[in-house]
Amino acid sequence: MRLKLLWVGKTQESWVRTGIEEYAGRVRRYAPLEILEAREEKGAQAATMRERECERLAKLIPKGGKLVLLDERGEQMSSPELGSFLSKNRDQGTQDLVFAIGGAYGFTDSFRAQAFKTISLSRMTLTHQMVRVFLLEQIYRGFTIINGEPYHHE
User: Which residues take part in binding S-adenosyl-L-methionine (predicted)?
Assistant: First the structure.
């Protein structure tokens, strides 16, 4: 199973880039990982920005890829549940599991309709920049859980 993380815009803060690099390296011990950035839209109305950004994200999804959206209104999972989700997809032969983080105005309804699953990392509002690190850390944690490694404590 290959993992793809899609997000809108460049990572601004150096400390966030450092966190992404750290956890991306850890995740790559368990599965191939590709991180792709869609260009952020600027200077238009929110609906137009959302539409253009989602069009760009859609072009990055491989044919047959299972799309998982990160959205505050999505299903909340515990870390062990995310581990089970990763394991189930791996064991069922999912070729590309694609996680998408939208821009400041989120996703369009038509992009949402393409999603296999929508999950939330928190009911709190998190910056789109920090969500990148949090998602990677949770994917890493999920892999350590399913491999019985001592990273996660109950």
Answer: 70, 102, 121-126
